[in-house]
Automatic annotation (TrEMBL):
InterPro entries: NCS2 (IPR006043), UacT-like (IPR017588), Xan_ur_permease (IPR006042). It comes from Paludifilum halophilum. This is Xanthine permease. Coiled coil: none annotated. It is found in: Cell membrane. The keyword Chloroplast does not apply.
Length: 445
């Protein structure tokens, strides 16, 4: 693709925002009412969420000497933290939640110093499996959205399925008949097409846009000074560890999509940036952030890997936090339309994982077992999360996330089955992780 001007970068960035927006705001939308907050307080939670998501994404993508993986990655509030946040908030107050978020961020920055050393245990058979798991674990979310959204009274109605199909076809046809920039923003165009059709079907509600204000100021520690309780800190740190595993998978997936090998020190900077993002989020009355898997599919589909696009996304998210009316405008996109766009995006993640698995020697039965069991467990946990309903809460936090439990399965089985294998030579069938120097893999703005 030719050099992108400011407007093109902005539209590509906005496309990323639309892909992650619903997932980003769902946490405050759930937590706020659960903690008996009024509409104005929930609105502030959403604003803080958007601003801190933007700041966190900028830290991650721009990076520096000590922070940032410097890949086109978007950060948003992690859904894994919802049950602990509600439990802490009800028992110890919302101030304890933000204190625990800050402390967990510090813990992540410390743990990341050692956590990245496990990268050598992620050969192509593990990395490819993890990337496939990320994709297949997200597909059920896309399908539920395509049907109208889980819990929706119109779930599965023909209108929702029609909108999802139209959106999918729009993505496919644009990628078939257009090239360059139009192809890169195929998801954005498809979302607009789907929303326009939904409007004429009477499925678009403009009242939230009319009711929203124009400008809102962001105040640090809006809900009070953070409080630090040991039990809350330990709980949130456990959530952070789960997010670190998931984020590492996202980094590896993006590295594959962007054709960049991940060095341990680069991975460490990425995890450390997530810790810093949590510290900032706690001070600004927001929740833990993690790298969003869905945007990996968008990068793979658009083939645009420039970090400047995600810089634009971060700036747009910050702007949306200060402009409620504009933020509300992004909420009018019907869930079915979003689901239709998600299906090809998440499918592209699976394709990237399959491409990486081409490097694996499948004549060895051990590698077949690693892929079979890890993908099976990851997909099973994503589709049937109730299978772990009777396990202790502390364990459930680790196993009910399909991406995490599937990734751990791949990691553990590789240690078990390939541990005694002699170091293979480079080339097809190798299970060795190769690294490049940082200077050769840094993406340009």
């Amino acid at each position: 693709m030719k050099k992108l001007n400011t407007w093109k970068v902005g539209f590509l960035g906005f496309q990323h925002v639309l892909a992650m927006y619903a997932g980003a705001v769902i946490v405050p939308l759930i937590v706020g009412p659960a903690l008996h907050m009024n509409a104005a307080e929930v609105s502030y939670l959403i604003a803080f969420d958007l601003v801190t998501s933007g700041v966190a994404s900028l830290i991650q993508v721009v990076g520096g000497r000590h922070f940032g993986v410097r890949l086109p990655v978007i950060l948003g509030c992690t859904y894994t933290a919802v049950p602990p946040i509600i439990a802490i908030g009800k028992m110890q107050g919302i101030e304890a939640v933000f204190g625990a978020v800050i402390a967990s961020g510090v813990a992540v920055m410390i743990i990341s110093q050692f956590f990245s050393k496990v990268l050598k245990w992620f050969p192509p058979v593990v990395t490819g499996s993890v990337i496939v798991i990320i994709g297949v674990a997200l597909i059920p979310v896309a399908m539920k959205n395509a049907a109208g959204g889980e819990g929706s009274p119109t779930f599965g109605h023909i209108e929702n399925l029609f909108l999802a199909v139209v959106t999918i076809l729009s993505v496919v046809l644009i990628n078939r008949f257009f090239k360059g920039y139009v192809q890169a923003i195929s998801v954005l165009i498809s979302l607009v097409i789907g929303t326009i059709i939904a409007f004429f079907l009477g499925m678009v509600d403009l009242r939230p846009v009319m009711d929203a204000g124009w400008v809102r100021l962001i105040q640090p520690m809006y809900f009070g000074v953070p409080e630090f309780h040991l039990s809350a800190i330990l709980t949130m740190t456990l959530v952070a560890l789960v997010s670190m595993v998931e984020s590492m998978g996202v980094f590896l997936a993006l590295g594959e999509v962007c054709d960049q090998k991940m060095r341990p020190d680069r991975l460490k900077k990425g995890l450390r940036a997530e810790g810093m993002a949590a510290v900032i989020s706690g001070f600004f009355s927001s929740f833990p952030h993690t790298s969003f898997s869905q945007n990996v599919g968008l990068v793979a589909l658009s083939k645009v890997t420039k970090r400047s696009v995600v810089v634009a996304s971060g700036l747009i998210l910050i702007l949306l936090g200060f402009l409620p009316k504009v933020a509300a405008l992004t909420m009018i996109i019907p869930t079915a339309v979003l689901g239709g766009a998600m299906i090809p995006m998440f499918g592209m993640v699976i394709s990237s994982g399959i491409r990486m698995l081409e490097k694996v020697d499948f004549h060895r039965n051990e590698n077949l077992l690693i892929v079979a069991c890890s993908v099976g467990v990851g997909l099973g946990a994503a589709v049937v999360p109730d299978i772990f309903s009777q396990v202790p809460q502390s364990v459930k936090l680790l196993v009910e996330n399909g991406i995490v439990v599937g990734s751990f399965t791949a990691f553990a089985m590789n240690l078990l089955l390939n541990r005694r294998q002699d170091s293979p030579s480079e080339g097809r069938g190798s299970n060795r992780v190769s690294f490049q120097e940082d200077s050769s893999v840094e993406a340009t703005l």
